[in-house]
Amino acid sequence: MVLLLYTIPLLWAAVIDYRKRIIPDWTWIALLLIGIASAFLLPAPNLDERIAGLLIPGLCLLLLASKYGGVGGGDIKLTAAMGFCFGLDTLAFILFFALLPACIYAAVTRQRSIPLAVFLFIGFVFSLLSRMLG
């Protein structure tokens, strides 16, 4: 199950982001390399969906970061790598289950800066569970 290979770098990114508010480069690079390898081994998602998953969210977050701030470069790179690995459709599912608790966390703790990798990992776990159960 290739999806389980993604767990290690995503979990590590979440732990380090929670502790230090930084996402190590090796985590998104590892995700991207696993995604590239899986693009040759797995039929889905197709390459077009992977490229859309890489570019669309990555560019949107980059524009948000440059205009408003608050989104770190590690968050952008991690989200873009996840988009390539899972494709745009699955990334949308992951983001829904990541951003909802992230917004609640930010409101409850009254923080403007949150460890986004933690919530991306939560969204990934929901995605993984939905695939395993459904």
TrEMBL record:
Residues 5-106 form the Prepilin type IV endopeptidase peptidase domain. InterPro entries: Prepilin_IV_endopep_pep, Prepilin_peptidase/N-MTase. Signal peptide: none annotated. The chain crosses the membrane at residues 26-44, 51-69, 81-107, 114-133. Belongs to the peptidase A24 family. Keywords: Membrane, Methyltransferase, Transferase, Transmembrane, Transmembrane helix. It comes from Desulfosporosinus lacus DSM 15449. GO terms for molecular function: aspartic-type endopeptidase activity; methyltransferase activity. This is Leader peptidase (Prepilin peptidase) / N-methyltransferase. GO terms for biological process: methylation; signal peptide processing. One of its GO terms (cellular component) is plasma membrane. It comes from the Bacteria.
